[in-house]
Amino acid sequence: MGLLTPVAIRLGALKWLPRFLPQITWVDRTISRLTGGRVTLVRIAGLPSLELTVAGRKSGVARTTPVLCVPYRDGFLVAGSNFGGPKVPVWVFNVRSADTVQLRVNGKELTAVAREVTGEERAAMWEHMLKTWPNYAKYAERAERVIPVFLFSPVAA
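Now predict its structure.
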């Protein structure tokens, strides 16, 4: 946990923050691009993050999205929370239809397979994720939908 993590958690809990998601994502992508993926807003806040690149299920165009992640065993857990917004993030649909995805973690490129977790396994992983980002609980209340959780497991090179 970093020095700014409590501030990030407080800001992340604000109900009006999702309105600024496009701007936040743009700033995050720009910082990441300028630093080769070594610095992101989430990392500045002392939280783990990765850049997820996945091809669009309709367009086939690869798009990159910065996301908060939670290290888990040899992989990473990522929630399609959209800050608790009513809509599922577009990347979720693309990940569901992709065989593999590309991840950039700490500036390192990885190919990974994604598995959406459900049921008791999801509940256990969700509890693990709450230790890193307690706002997921608030997002779940706001979303009025089940927030999808994915386990990204790197593929051996």
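The chain has six helices and seven strands.
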